[in-house]
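Hi R.,

Here are the chain sequences for the assembly we discussed:
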Amino acid sequence: MSEKNLLPELAAYLYGSSNEDNGRTPSERELAEHFGVSRGQIRETLAILEAMQIVERRAKSGIFLTTRTASVEALALFAKAGLPLDPIQIYEAVELRKIHEIKAAELASLRATDENFTRLREILASSERRLAAGEPLAEEDRDFHLEIVRATQNTVFFRVCSVYYAMGERRLPIYFADPDRGRNSHAEHLQIFEAIQKRDANLAQALMSAHLQGVEGYWKGLIAGGKA
Amino acid sequence: MSEKNLLPELAAYLYGSSNEDNGRTPSERELAEHFGVSRGQIRETLAILEAMQIVERRAKSGIFLTTRTASVEALALFAKAGLPLDPIQIYEAVELRKIHEIKAAELASLRATDENFTRLREILASSERRLAAGEPLAEEDRDFHLEIVRATQNTVFFRVCSVYYAMGERRLPIYFADPDRGRNSHAEHLQIFEAIQKRDANLAQALMSAHLQGVEGYWKGLIAGGKA
DNA sequence: AAGGGCCAACTGGTCCAACCAGATTGACAG
DNA sequence: CTGTCAATCTGGTTGGACCAGTTGGCCCTT
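And here is the predicted structure of the full complex:
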């Protein structure tokens, strides 16, 4: 069936085929047959899923979906697999993203290096070219935000924040299908960039906060609409 | 060799036996022999390590340690395995923890439920009993901090923060070996609790910030001392 | 008809032996 | 010293096998 990246496909399948009552999934042997791969490969993937606490393997009993909250990594994985995300958890993840990025804007103002500024300028220039050509923004949005986190010089921070973008990746083309959204976003990015460059931490923080309100609103709309 | 939790042991071994130059580790077959387990089990563990981006498996070539920054999960794993942690990354993780928990104190002040308060009271009572008995604090510290994050009612947030405590777990007994530290910590916890109960978000935030300065100082001392 | 106890099938955990094809390496020839 | 090529090593993947608890259904008892 699948050729690569068994992980998201398996995760999706588990959710689709699990027992409604107790969350029990098909057995390893059944999964192996369904995906046309060996049991060893299924086990390897399940090990990862278990490490992510998406699944629990009970010896000699079965594999069960974890009811506990998904980590951000798990959310990103689900999004990648095209699985419907729990609206509540999306909302929680967006809140966490706000916490992270507002603080990141502040720290970036204090610590950004020339290298960071160069990259930010490149990203903004790329955005401008896109908009001028009438094309929708794409990875520029993600790159801009991640570069600000990187500018905090905290690599652990960067690593943690990276997963949000895996989560929203599928949505970017949809989000920026509206040209106005692209222009708005770019304008706000420019302001944030300038604030950081002026080392005005408070302003950068405030602008980022305002900017992310829009993102939050978008997700809220999706949640209200029931789609995720 | 190992009986359970191959993961941290394997991670530790990989770091100890990898090639200094290119980070290449022993082959799967060698690892299997060394740990006295089958290759399948080694592969399963390596899959997790690879998902954590601690290791990279190159087909038909070898297994290589990733030079990229570790995620918080990886840091926690290393700590659990008793591996020396990179001081810089510890510092970064502590900074991130501060960001998280100060915000958590604020949100908890706004959202904590009776259930949260009950649990917090229980934790504080347990701490008091310990101190009265002349015993060092143990998991009470972790429980208190995590309960505050839980009180934000953001389960994704809670999940992300949980890993910090896996990271520092080994240190708790050492940290609280000094009775003064236990008393101080407990007193500050009490203040934070009261601020949250009074729904005074600003105060809770400020107190948490001050409280975490101590933690940060402790880690800074460790880093300066070279031990991690 | 309901309850309890037993057994067979099922399940995850583990191991082994094998094959594949590309990467690597070292010896050999120039 | 250099270039070439074959033997070796490596991860990737498969299939089969065995173990020992778990489960669930069947049958007997009450």
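The CA atoms of residues 8 and 81 of chain B lie 5 Å apart. The first strand of chain B starts at residue 55 and ends at 58.

Let me know if anything looks off.

Best,
T.
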